[in-house]
Amino acid sequence: MKLLEERIRKDGKIRGGGTVLKVGSFLNHQIDVDLYNEIGKEFFRLFGQDGVTKILTIEASGIGIACIAGQYFHVPVIFAKKSKTKNIDGEVYTASVQSFTHANIYTIMVEKEFIQPQDRVLLIDDFLANGAALDGLIQVVDQAGATLVGAGVCVEKAFQPGGERIRSRGVRVEALARVASMSEEEGVTFC
Ligand code: 5GP
Q: 2-190 maps to which CATH number?
């Protein structure tokens, strides 16, 4: 998606010795709602014919993107919670996720009533790096006995292993911008 690539080139900041792309000025801290809208439209173009009945994402950064996409699909958006709150009182699906940005392991949970075996689930997230977040969401879909339609991510860092690993399991993964390489000196190149 050219629009997203151009924005990353213009406003993305490379950190962590070329491993972390900061997009806080438009994607996951301050939010460019018009860009989100184009992203939602693009996810619908890619997955709109696949009978999606639920969109599943993970808090926090995925929620806004998934909600705007949900306005095109006209299906409910569910976000996996990262901590058990008093609001969760039913039975839950759970999975462990190794955090990319915080280097710790956390448990995600989704109340069972929100995903049923007849659901066709589209996963949406902001980034795909090592694939741990998507792995966790896939586990939730599997536990529910639902059908996984695929995963849509805004940015895939294709030089990290998650995308290849998850695609090799037969999951359809669509990334709107695929970063081939990045460094503070040379900037970003796309696949
Ligand atoms: P994964 O689980 O695929 O290793 O990493 C995906 C998750 O880590 C995403 O939900 C995202 O929030 C975060 N993440 C991974 N890489 C980056 C990055 O380069 N920049 C930002 N802003 N977040 C990232």
A: 3.40.50.2020
